[in-house]
Amino acid sequence: MNGESNHVANHVANHVANHVANHVESHLPLLRQWAMLRMIPSYPRKVSTLDLLQKLLAMGFSPLSLRTVQRDLVQLSEILPLSSDENRPRGWCWGKDAIPVDIPAMNPHIALTFCLVKRFADRLLPPGTLSYLQPYWRQAEHVLQAVGSVSGVWPDKVQVISPGQPLQLPNIVPEVVET
What single DSSP character describes residue 42? Predict the structure, then answer.
């Protein structure tokens, strides 16, 4: 990189850093809520509000109170498929049939990968793992149905033929897989 290119790159990096620094405070609730949503596990696992608070504080979201975390979760659960139990402290999770929310959204290449994993690796994975992948598989199917390209029809064009006898899955206690 020559001196002028290096100068331009540094200028752009400084501009972006200053822009972020000047605007982070006004967007702090959004960033905090997004970080919180990424920490909430899929059903049936749960996370407590206290655990969320501690993780957010460790990420640098301070000052922050338990009440703010609780309020955020209640507000987010009104528009997103979040659920909680009635325990004290409350345990929060994404709903059983919730489609995973992530940014960036699932693209056709990732969707194709999930569809092929569903088709060919389901005999290789324990049932507990398969149940966690269900929302991703549903999302992948939606993405591929919406795409009219080769990615959308590829799963119908591929077949894997086993060179020998198919393997049988061992019986595994679900609680062992959860640990």
Answer: B
Nearest Cα residue to 93 out of 51, 62, 125: 51
Query: Are residues 126 and 158 in contact, defined by beta-carbon separation less than 8 angstroms?
Result: no
At 37-79, the pLDDT tens digits run: 988 988 888 999 999 999 999 888 888 999 999 999 999 999 9
Identify which of 90, 111, 96 has the alpha carbon closest to the alpha carbon of residue 48. Answer: 90
Radius of gyration of the chain (CA): 22
Q: Show Cβ contacts of residue 62 under 8 Å, excluding neighbours closer than 6 positions.
A: none
What's the token pair of residue 49? 């509000």
Within 8 A by CB and 6+ apart from 29, the residues are: 72
64 three-state secondary structure = coil
For residue 66, give the amino acid letter.
Answer: L
